Each structure stands twice: as C-alpha cells, then as structure tokens.
Inverse folding.
C-alpha cells in the first residue's frame, strides 16, 4: 500500500503559504509506515517545533490501474474519507530553501491520519463535498471539493501516468486554506458532510 499526496490543489492554500501555482499537480508520497494506527494518539516528533495539520478528502483505490482515462477513473474507487497530512513545516521550509525533497517533513512515522471510510455513493456530489476540521471544538479549516484545481477523477488519471495504482492505495487530494500548528493536548475532529470521520488527540 502506498499513499500518494497532491499538493497545491486549492488556490487559497497556495496563497497562504506563498507558494507558486503549478500547471500540473504536485505529487509526493508517504510510506505505509506514515499511517497512524487506529485509536492511537499523535505524538509530536522531537525533530520539529512546528507541525501543522492539513485536512484532506482521501480516496481508496479498489483495483489495479495504469494510464487510466479520466472518464473511467470513478470506477477505481468506492470509498472516501478524510485524512490529515501532518507536516513538519519548519523542516519542510528548510528543505525547500535548499531545493531538497520533502520526505522527511511529510513522510515521517504517524504523519498520515486515516479517517473512517464511507461509500462514495453516500455523498450526493463528489465535486461538491463540504469538509471541516475542528481543533478543540473550534473550526480551523473549511473546504469544499468544488474549489479543487484538479478534481478526484483527474487526479487519479494523472497519477496513474507515473505510478501503477493498486488495490488499497490511498490518495490524499490536497488541503484548503487554514492549516496551522498543533500543540500538546489539542484534539482534532474531521467532519465530511456532517459525518465525524476522524478524531485524533495530540501528545
């Protein structure tokens, strides 16, 4: 199982981090060891003083695919959920300045929180999904997939040009604006169309 992540997929998030908007999706990968085990707290790693939450709509691939046409992409997943891409922002910024890869800042152990999966058919319109992250009961991120630069199907088609997709692979589709720093004892809840799919406590 691999975790494929899409960066810079919401214009407002690109702006808040002063990043450059790209003509094609930005792709990076997290190893399977990045998945935070179910019911486990997230422990802030000792190598970062600025870990940020990034809430994203995620999809689980249900069959093998390569060079998938966008018109068929919807048949390659049945389930969606929410995920948190924890990012060591201070480390990422340092790596970016040096022109180095981001893996240490994005793929460290426990950096991928996976919410409860639901059938995609339970969502009325996959191109219009509302999702929210609560931190200690307060809304800190609010997004809607209609603001994606590349929608779910186009992401699947694009990614499959470079990587063979296999059953169980997970795609993180990008985060909206509102990312921010976590602290010990924070409690995060991810909500998709009124359904609480993700909960994690910070240690």
């Amino acid at each position: 199982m691999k975790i494929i992540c899409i960066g810079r997929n919401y214009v407002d998030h690109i702006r808040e981090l002063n990043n450059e908007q790209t003509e094609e999706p930005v792709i990076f990968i997290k190893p399977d060891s990045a998945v935070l085990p179910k019911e486990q707290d997230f422990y802030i790693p000792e190598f970062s003083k600025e870990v940020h939450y990034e809430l994203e709509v995620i999809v689980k691939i249900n069959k093998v695919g390569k060079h998938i046409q966008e018109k068929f992409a919807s048949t390659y997943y049945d389930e969606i959920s929410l995920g948190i891409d924890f990012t060591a922002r201070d480390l990422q910024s340092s790596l970016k300045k040096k022109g180095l890869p981001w893996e240490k800042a994005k793929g460290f152990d426990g950096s991928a929180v996976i919410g409860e999966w639901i059938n995609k058919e339970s969502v009325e319109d996959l191109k219009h999904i509302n999702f929210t992250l609560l931190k200690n009961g307060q809304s800190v991120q609010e997004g809607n997939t209609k603001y994606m630069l590349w929608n779910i199907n186009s992401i699947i088609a694009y990614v499959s040009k470079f990587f063979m997709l296999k059953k169980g692979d997970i795609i993180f589709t990008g985060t909206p604006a509102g990312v921010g720093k976590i602290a010990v004892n924070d409690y995060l809840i991810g909500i998709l169309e009124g359904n609480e799919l993700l909960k994690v406590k910070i240690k």
Remarks:
- The domain at 3-201 is CATH 3.90.850.10 (Fumarylacetoacetate hydrolase; domain 2).
- The first helix runs from residue 11 to 16.
- The radius of gyration is 16 Å.
